[in-house]
């Protein structure tokens, strides 16, 4: 089992920044690819970003490219999502997820999820 706990959400004005963290425990963190998803009220969950097990490869959905940066620290068992130039449409609950193989499609993050952290961007 992998346990995931997100933190770092909050209320920020448009144009501002937040850094989300997702702390993992339970298994060897470096054996898992990590992803960030988000879900806004009334919307389906959206795959936002992913990072490979080594951290050498990343993926971003088009709407966040150039604004969000995913990174990981395998020594600290933590994955981060740095979010800059935030827009009201980024408002959502953000979730991290883990998968034991590389996945840049978002389809295979089925087993391990955090509880989510709310991000609210005011205009």
Average pLDDT figure: 96
Q: How many DSSP H or I helices?
A: 0
Q: Can you tell me the overall shape?
A: globular
What's the helix-strand series?
EEEEEEEEEEE
Radius of gyration, in angstroms, nearest whole number: 13 Å
* Strand tally: 11
Major sheet, described briefly?
Answer: 7 strands, mixed
C-alpha termini separation: 40 Å
Unreliable residue stretches: none
Question: Helical content, roughly?
Answer: under 10%
Estimate what percentage of residues fall within beta strands. Answer: over 45%
Quickly give the structural class: mainly beta
Quick structural gist:
The protein is mainly β. The chain has no helices and eleven strands. The strands form two sheets. Strands 2, 4, 5, 6, 9, 10 and 11 form a seven-stranded mixed beta sheet that branches. Strands 1-3-8-7 form a four-stranded antiparallel beta sheet, with no helix packed on it.
Topology of this structure?
Layout: E1 3-7, E2 10-13, E3 18-25, E4 33-39, E5 46-51, E6 58-60, E7 68-73, E8 78-83, E9 92-99, E10 112-113, E11 117-122
Parallel strand pairs: 2-11
Antiparallel strand pairs: 1-3, 3-8, 4-5, 4-9, 5-6, 7-8, 9-10, 9-11
């Amino acid at each position: 089992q992998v346990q995931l706990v997100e933190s770092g959400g909050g209320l920020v004005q448009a144009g501002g920044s937040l850094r989300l963290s997702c702390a993992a425990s339970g298994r060897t963190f470096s054996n898992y690819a990590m992803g960030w998803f988000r879900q806004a009220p009334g919307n389906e969950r959206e795959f936002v970003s992913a990072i490979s097990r080594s951290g050498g490869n990343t993926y971003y959905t088009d709407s966040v490219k150039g604004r969000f940066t995913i990174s990981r620290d395998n020594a600290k068992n933590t994955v981060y999502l740095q979010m800059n130039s935030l827009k009201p449409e980024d408002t959502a609950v953000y979730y991290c997820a883990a998968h034991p193989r590389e996945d840049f499609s978002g389809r295979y993050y089925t087993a391990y999820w955090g509880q989510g952290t709310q991000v609210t961007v005011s205009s």
